[in-house]
Amino acid sequence: MKQEHVTDAIAWHASEADHPARRAGRASMAAVIEGRKDDWLALFAPDALIEDPVGPSFLDPSGNGHRGRDGITAFWDNFISTIAGFRFAVADSFANGDCCANVATITTTMGDGSTMTIDCVLIYRVDENGKITSLRAHWEPDRAMATVTKP
């Protein structure tokens, strides 16, 4: 995966107020951008669930999500690792209770230089230790696929 400087690849236009779920979300984005698989995996509780996107999709035909260390590792290996570059633009962030919802746009770049833009809401839930117990990414695959541009 292409290495990028996190400050160049995350445009944060949202609240800077400290919150455990907000910290976890930002750490997750940074690890993804920098291709730090082990650091990313360490952010998750052992029985965590990733739904990206929520519901059935080409990334998760059953719509059951990716659960536990094996499921989350497979999600990285099968999807995240196939992307050459990520850029996150976070327009807003709402943190309450054990959750944080980030309104974001993710721009992905493939190895051939093609790009896709994903407008989404990323909801991180953490446990008392600040480990992510769930990541729910609300986005519409058809809408994102319509943004694909070729080099």
Can you offer a commentary on this structure?
Mean pLDDT is 94; it is low at 1-5. This protein starts with 5 loop residues before the first helix and ends in a 6-residue tail after the last helix. The chain has 5 helices and 7 strands. It is an alpha/beta fold. It has a single domain (6-145), classed as Nuclear Transport Factor 2, Chain: A. The protein is 27% helix and 36% strand. Strand 4 (85-96) and strand 5 form a beta hairpin. A 7-stranded mixed sheet has the order 1-4-5-6-7-2-3. The protein is globular, with a radius of gyration of 14 Å.
Biggest sheet features: 7 strands, mixed
Tell me the overall shape: globular
If helices are DSSP runs of H or I spanning 4 or more residues, what is the number of helices?
5
Q: How much helicity do the residues have?
A: 25-40%
Oligomeric state of the chains present here: single chain
Give the low-pLDDT segments.
1-5
End-to-end separation in angstroms reads 19 Å
Q: How many domains, in number, for the residues? A: 1
Task: Based on the coordinates given, report the CATH architecture.
Answer: Roll
Regarding CATH, which class? Answer: Alpha Beta
Structural class: alpha/beta
Q: What spatial order of strands do you see in the largest sheet?
A: 1-4-5-6-7-2-3
Strand content: 35-45%
**CATH fold assignment:** Nuclear Transport Factor 2, Chain: A
Average pLDDT works out at 94
Element-by-element helix/strand order: HEHHEEHEEEEH
Count of distinct strands: 7
Radius of gyration: 14 Å
